Request: fold
Amino acid sequence: MTSYILGMFGIAAFAITGVISSGKKGMDLFSLVFLGMVTSLGGGTIRDVILSMETVYWVKDTSYLWVAAMSSMFAFFAVRVIENREGLFNYADAFGLALFTVVATERVLLYGFSPTIAITMGVITGIVGGIIRDVLSHRSPLVLGREFYATPAFLGAFLMVILEYSIPDHEFNAIYAVSFIFVLRVLAMKKGLYYPNWLLYQKKRHD
Reply:
């Protein structure tokens, strides 16, 4: 039940970022709602397709679809009265990243897949929705920036696997992992955490 609720919050958070990312471009209500739904449902859809699940999760449970649509509509009308849209976008994105990564990792483990597959699918689910959003909104994808983005997702998914194997009956495992990813992402935004230059790709200069 905890992961189900967290998943719904993740859907809402990413739907809101989808609307904010293109809200200033003069798009109509339907277009923005569609973008919010694609953003919030895209990562999990790709996960289920890769794992050859019999039915994609939001087709099986249309509550996810409704939450995505209603959250997008709410954001469409509410975002115009919010001054710091970029701040809201960043925090909602960090929250959605954390929630999607952890919920997907836990779900894939429950499907019976190995920890390696669970971590991989957790990271993919967490970052793909944001990539789709940024590409459709003509933004530079956050995952391609210098700040930690995929790294917190990977570490959080790894932590979730460890917790599930160490204390499998603990009901707050997902909350611990979500908090861990969210804090790392916020620190990356606030403190500019990124890999040292020797771990970054550098183009050669041609004089």
In short: The radius of gyration is 17 Å.
